[in-house]
Specification:
This protein has about 140 residues and is an alpha+beta fold. Helix content is about 15%, strand content about 40%. The chain starts with a helix and ends with a strand.
């Protein structure tokens, strides 16, 4: 009986560790902007995905050392990253507001805000930093 409980508990914990697309964004059109979301590999929270939401829609579960490219319509958007909904705590959310121009590529990193917290900070970075981090990271197709 104890063994069955341990197996069930392990299965439930791993169920929250799926990576990749979650929900589709509305069609972005031919002049779409690209949002490159990069998660550098780190020890803290390493096994859990970071769920990335654009305009309040969970669109991607990002693995450590991975990045995703999301296409959005030009205009204002909000981006937030957090631990999955089934994680025991629902952290404060750091929401970043942006304005994407047509055919623009914007780069962002997502990382834990502090050693002891469970808040995930989203930061916009320049293209040079973004391209360098992409070379060190694994693309997660959507």
């Amino acid at each position: 009986m104890r063994r069955h409980i341990l197996i069930l508990a392990a299965a439930l914990m791993l169920a929250g560790c799926a990576y990749g697309p979650l929900n589709a964004l509305p069609g972005a059109g031919p002049d779409a902007a690209e949002l490159v979301i990069i998660r550098a590999g780190a020890f803290l929270g390493a096994g859990l995905p970071y769920d990335v939401a654009v305009d309040s829609v969970d669109v991607f579960a990002l693995k450590p050392g991975g990045y995703a490219i999301l296409k959005v319509a030009p205009g204002p958007h909000t981006i937030v990253a957090r631990f999955p909904k089934n994680f025991p705590k629902d952290p404060r959310r750091y929401t970043l507001s942006i304005n994407a121009a047509p055919n623009e590529r914007l780069y962002f990193t997502v990382e834990l805000d502090s050693l002891w917290g469970n808040d995930i900070k989203t930061t916009q970075i320049d293209a040079g930093q973004g391209e360098a981090l992409m070379k060190k990271s694994a693309y997660q197709p959507g």
